[in-house]
Amino acid sequence: MRFTKALVLIFAVLFVFSASGFAAEKPVRWRLAMTWGPTLQPFVGAVENMAAAVEKMSGGSFTIRVDASNKHKAPFGVFDMVKMGQYDMGHSASYYWKGKDLSFLPLTSMPFGLTGSETYAWYYFGGGLDLSNKAYNKHNMYSFPGGNTGVQMGGWFRKEINSLDDLQGLKMRIPGFAGEVLANIGLTVTNIAPGELYTSLERGTIDALEWVGPGMDINMGFHKIAPYYYTGWHEPGSEMQFLVNKKKFEQLSDKNKEILRVAMRVAAYDMYAENYAMSADAWDQMIATNPDIKVMTFPEPVMAAMKKSNDELLVNMKAKNALFKEIVESQEKFQTKARKWTEMSEYSYVRDNLVK
Amino acid sequence: MRFTKALVLIFAVLFVFSASGFAAEKPVRWRLAMTWGPTLQPFVGAVENMAAAVEKMSGGSFTIRVDASNKHKAPFGVFDMVKMGQYDMGHSASYYWKGKDLSFLPLTSMPFGLTGSETYAWYYFGGGLDLSNKAYNKHNMYSFPGGNTGVQMGGWFRKEINSLDDLQGLKMRIPGFAGEVLANIGLTVTNIAPGELYTSLERGTIDALEWVGPGMDINMGFHKIAPYYYTGWHEPGSEMQFLVNKKKFEQLSDKNKEILRVAMRVAAYDMYAENYAMSADAWDQMIATNPDIKVMTFPEPVMAAMKKSNDELLVNMKAKNALFKEIVESQEKFQTKARKWTEMSEYSYVRDNLVK
Prior knowledge:
Two copies of one chain form a homodimer. Chain A is an alpha/beta fold. Chain A folds into two domains: 27-148 and 237-277, Bacterial extracellular solute-binding protein, family 7 (D-Maltodextrin-Binding Protein, domain 2), CATH 3.40.190; 155-234 and 291-320, Periplasmic binding protein-like II (D-Maltodextrin-Binding Protein, domain 2, 3-Layer(aba) Sandwich), CATH 3.40.190. The first copy, chain A, has helices at 2-19, 43-57, 69-72, 78-83, 116-125, 128-137, 176-183, 197-202, 214-217, 246-251, 254-289, 300-320, 322-351, and strands spanning 28-34, 62-67, 89-92, 141-148, 155-157, 171-173, 188-190, 208-209, 228-230, 239-245, 294-296. In chain A, strands 7-6-8-5-9-11 form a six-stranded mixed beta sheet, with helices on one face. A five-stranded mixed beta sheet of chain A has the order 2-1-3-10-4. The first copy, chain A, starts with a helix and ends in a 5-residue tail after the last helix. Chains A and B meet through α1, α2, α5, α11 and α13 of A and α1, α2, α5, α11 and α13 of B.
């Protein structure tokens, strides 16, 4: 009887404790696989900041171990590992999975498509996030925006491009859909491992290549050997992605779901801002050490040919895949309105105050 | 003795509970005062989303009650109420406090200054946040970015502006520093309560006024009575602000500090994206219902005169206040680098793909 009384008292105390804000939260220990190596900034920093925020906001009860590709050895296996639950979540880029389903392509960026600011407006306030999950739910996953690179540059060229003729047979490293667009107008498009790019460009195995923008290009050194840096057209606002296993996500408490959602969202936005600052700094350094590099824009007939090639390829792709068509048309419709605002606002302001 | 044994048992159980992930978290109940009325979107939504995220992420143990100005009756008393601890935090705009200390002015936006994307890059990756807190710590507060409007339009004009002469004596409602810049070049600058603006413009009491951009202007109806909508120069990326009482912030647990920090940060970024989508939609609606409205840019001599007036006023202001000088010079230095990147990236991309 004494024992029973004590037990009653204990439960009474625990009940009062629970009611006054305590809740039994089982520790959650997750693992995240990145497509990237351990030093690729600002991607890796964004993921680590996300994990750190989750840990702090949960008071240590929810932690995420971040594995770079040198650890899990499968940079392009992230999709399948998260889908199968070998990893709880991942960080990658949606367009890497276009071979599995074309619908994944436009969730990163499309040639002549949305800018960074327009991309976030579309994802969060223009129906993009729902369409993205329509594609990923089929694969037992959720996908969330994971950080934007802003406009990616059109690439480093060893020679100036004055006409469409200058592009015939020109050997360029440019992967993915943009490569198809350029192959269509006469370029010889190749893919080369990142570690061999510098040497290939230096030795003339290739004449040109695209990477990202100044912030991520500077450490590659291309500006020392290919002086013409062309402005962008093919990835005007590439959004990285967080992938989360659907079943694992559903098992989280409401509190942890919100902590994860908000931590991913702020890490993505922060990456865009950080990349902006990195690109500003890196360009400043590049031009100081290599004053001969020049920012160039493709001549109008070249731009028109790229646009035409892009539009032709899109017609076929839309016919092949209904969800791809739905996503691209949602972006096109959004862009029609958003670009008018971009032109009235930031574009006009920058145009009227160009740096001398 | 029986009672003592029971107590020992209770404490033993509580100890095991605490060690296994429980932590005594006292419920925190905060109050926030907004400068805005209860319907001013997207400002109010951003604040409410922030409070909702804090509540969910803390499992209900940290809540923030949001009071609009119709509740606390002191829209421009937010600074003092938060400083004195009558409210734990606030949402407002830093430049409203320029009369207290000029240093607060550039923390919102400066004429010919940073765009929205550049503003976030400066705040978070260019030293801005530290400088902001250097100004606010003197007043027992922390300040955090609270949402960006993007480029604000130059205003609605009843007549087209073709020269500096057209501006002489022109009566315009434009508050704050931008008003001083325009008074300097011949305009008659007035301030009028928001509720009386439409009638004043319709009756010709004023010839022009500025508000924000399409997303926030549409409900004011100015586009029905003043067909010339000028592009922006005076607030190219206005950042709202969260103010937090310093002592109250320091009393939060590390977990709640992080929850609040992250919730404010994501709410601010989200407001920028939401305003982008709202402006795109609103402009689309305005031009559909009022096809005669025209987007205009001030002629070059007018822009040059505004810039000259701005630069002259800045010289005096920098001489008066050392921290103002430090903040503005930090922004100017950052802008020199960041604008080159803006021009190479988004500006060039938009220019080469203008909407026909």
